[in-house]
Amino acid sequence: MKRVLALLILFAAAGGIYYYTQVYLPANAPAAQNAGQGSRRGGGAGRGGEGPVAVIVASVKRADVPVTIDAIGTVQALNTVTVKAQVDGKLIRIAFKDGQDVKAGDVLAVIDPTTYQAAYDQAVAKKAQDEAQLANARTDLERYERLAKTEYGSRQQADTQRATVAQFEAQVRSDQAAIDNAKAILDYTTVRAPIDGRTGIRAVDQGNIIKASDTTGLVVITQLKPISVLFNLPQQQLRVVSDAMAAGAVQVQAFESDGVTMLDTGAVTVVDNQVDQTTGTVRFKSNFPNDRLQLWPGQFVNVKVLVKTLRDAVVVPTSAVQRGPSGPFVYVVGDDNKVTLRTVMVGQQSETQSVINSGIAPPQRVVTTGFTRLTDGAAVTVTEAADEAGNPPAPANRDQVRQRRVRDPNAPEGQRGQRRQGERRNGNPPDQPGSDTAPNPQNTAPPPAPASGVTQGTQK
C-alpha cells in the first residue's frame, strides 16, 4: 500500500512539472514580457503609465514695460539749520515742543531782554538830545546869516555856525545808527525759526544761561517738504540718464528695503560735474515732494530711475524662461495640449516679467510651473495661472481627472499592475465600488484548467 501511494505522489509531481514547463510558461510568456516593458516605460520621464504632465501656463501678452536703473540712495534734507543764540543771557522761555512743525519767523525761545532794552532806550535818548542841539544850531545859523547880509554881523561867524549845524546833523545820523544796532540786538533776544521745517530734540532747557559762542545751539530744524535723495550710478549709465534728461524730466521712485513698498515719486534735478575716480560712479540728486512724510533724512532707500518705456512689448512671466545649452527657451503649449520647446531672445528682465524680443508672440501660452518631467512634445494637463487681479486658477475638470485614472483596456498587464499597486497604496482598492477603476470583462481571462492527473493527486 505504501508503495502504491509513493508511486501516485511521484506521478503527480511529474505531471505538475510537465504542466508548468509545457503549458503554463508558454502561455504567460507574452504577458510577462509586456509587464517588463511597461515597468521600464513607467520609470521614464513622465511618459507611458504616468500619463500627461500637470503644468501651469500663462498667456503671452503685450504691455508697456518701463526700463529702470536700480541704485541705493540716501535721503538728505534740502535745508538743515542749527538754531543758536546771537546774544548772551538767561533763557526765560521755550516756545516750541520737540518734533513740532514750525514756519519761518515763528518764535522759538526768548532770552532776558532787560539789559538790551536799556541800551536801546539810551540810544533813543541820545538821538533826541542831539536833535535838540541841531535845532538850536539851525536857528542860530539863520540869525547869523541875516546879520551878515546887513553887515551887522561877521561872515566868519555865520560860516562857523553853518559848520556847527553840519556837525550836529552828522551826530543825529550816528545816533540813528546806534538805535538801529541796539534794536537789532534787542530783537536777537527773541529767537525765531529761520526756515520752514520740523524741530528736533532741544539741547537747552529753560532757565539756563546761554551764550552766542555756544556750539551746540538750541535746536536743529530740518526741512522735510520737499526732500532730496542722493544716489550713485556707474559711469556707464551716465549717457543713458543724460539722454533721458534731455528728452524731459526723469522720474525717480523711492522704495523701502523690501523693494516693493513705494515711498514717493520724484525727479532727477542735478548730475554731478565729475566722475568719482575711486569708484567710477557719478552722483545724482533727485527731489521728492514727500507729502506723506515717508522719506526721512539719513534713511537708506532703493531707487529706480525710469530712463525709458518699451511700448507694446511682448512679455511673459520670468518663471517661464528657462536656460539651456542653446540659450533661453520656453515651452509653448499648443491647442492639442502638447508642448513645444521654443528658443527665445530675452530683452529687459525683472523678477516678475521678461520682455521677449523674438521667438513667441501673443496669444500663445507658455508653461510657468511643472518643468520637472517636461520634454519637447510631451502631453500636458493645463491649469491656467492666477490672473493679474490675484484670482486663483479654475480647478481641473473632474471628468478629466477620472478619465486619467480609468485603466486603458488595451494597456499591457504590467502597466495595469502598477496602477493597481498605486491605488492600493492610496487606500482605494481596484475593482470595488468606491474606486474609479472598474474591471474589464473582456480582458479578464480565466486561469487554464489543470490536468486531470494533477487534480486527482491534489485531491488525494
Concise description?
By secondary structure, this protein is of the alpha+beta class. The chain is 32% helix and 30% strand.
Descriptive account of the structure:
The protein is α+β, with helices and mostly antiparallel strands. Helix content is 32%, strand content 30%. Among the domains are: 2-50 and 409-459, no CATH class; 53-62 and 312-400, conserved putative lor/sdh protein from methanococcus maripaludis s2 fold; 113-188, Helix Hairpins. It has helices at residues 2-42, 114-149, 155-187, 238-247, 398-405, 413-425, 452-459, and strands spanning 53-59, 61-77, 80-83, 89-94, 101-102, 107-111, 190-192, 197-199, 209-210, 219-222, 227-234, 251-255, 262-271, 281-288, 300-317, 322-324, 327-333, 339-343, 345-349, 353-358, 365-369, 380-384. A hairpin with a 2-residue loop joins strand 16 and strand 17. Mean pLDDT is 81; it is low at 31-49 and 394-460.
Based on secondary structure, the structural category is alpha+beta
Q: Secondary-structure element sequence?
A: HEEEEEEHHEEEEEHEEEEEEEEEEEHHH
Helix content: 25-40%
Q: Characterize the overall form.
A: elongated
Count of DSSP-assigned helices: 7
The main pleated sheet reads as: 6 strands, mixed
Model regions low in confidence, pLDDT < 50 over at least 5 residues: 31-49, 394-460
